[in-house]
Amino acid sequence: MSTVYAALVHHPVRDRDGQTATAAVTNIDVHDIARSSHTYGLRGLFVVTPIDAQRALVERIFAHWREGAGKRRMPHRSEALAICQHAPSLAEVQARIAAEHGCAPRLVATAARSNLAREVSSFEALRLQLAAADGAPWLIVFGTGHGLADEVLNAADVLLEPIRGRGDYNHLSVRAAAAIVFDRLFGVR
After folding, report:
1. Spatial contact of 30 and 159, defined as CB atoms under 8 Å apart
2. 148-151 own/partner pairs: CB under 8 Å, 24+ apart
3. What is the Cα–Cα distance from 184 to 89, expressed in whole angstroms?
């Protein structure tokens, strides 16, 4: 199995009008995606925001669950938050992973939109690629707000197919989408 990381990106993401924006960090997204990442064996989760005050908030969230009241109340959750880091940019995340592994990670972008002008990978095809461990790390990127900005989608090595339910409505929370993606890629079959 390949070494896989995830990134929860708050910039560059899209706003409701499709413009590039920065979204706010939320405790529940960080906490829940960390738990899902650890459950499915990911090597780490990066919380990406260029705003210093938001990274300070992320540090407080980490501290709460790693050594604060959260750890005292639910010690097993500190294990999940232990795999988390924050970074000011996706480029910084890629550089850290490259420094650790000696090569840049392959970037997998996720999107709920299906009107993208490039080919998408099925979950099964990516699952097979990830299972064929060739030593190169992977980075699965999730966007907050209204999804990843086009510059991130266009730079990705792989664009993962959107999650689809039964109807036309398709607006999952990022934490729900991350859990579904991880289960489809790494869940026991």
Report:
1. no
2. 148/9, 148/12, 148/13, 148/14, 148/109, 148/110, 148/111, 149/12, 149/13, 149/14, 149/20, 150/14, 151/12, 151/20
3. 27
Estimate to the nearest angstrom the gap between the alpha carbon of 161 and the chain centroid.
Answer: 15
Q: Specify whether domain 4-186 bears CATH 1.10.357.10.
A: no
pTM: 0.96
Predicted local confidence at residue 189, as pLDDT: 84
Which of 50, 16, 13 lies closest to 149, judged by CA?
13
Give tens-digit pLDDT for 81-105: 999 999 999 999 999 999 999 999 9
Distance CA 168, CA 6 (A): 27
Low-confidence residues of the chain, pLDDT below 50? none
* One-letter amino acid of 102: G
Strand partners, 84: 45
Q: What is the pLDDT of residue 68?
A: 87
Question: Would you say 34 and 66 are in contact if contact means Cβ atoms under 8 Å apart?
Answer: no
d(CA 35, CA 45): 10
Domain-wise residue ranges, the chain: 4-186
Mean pLDDT of the chain: 94
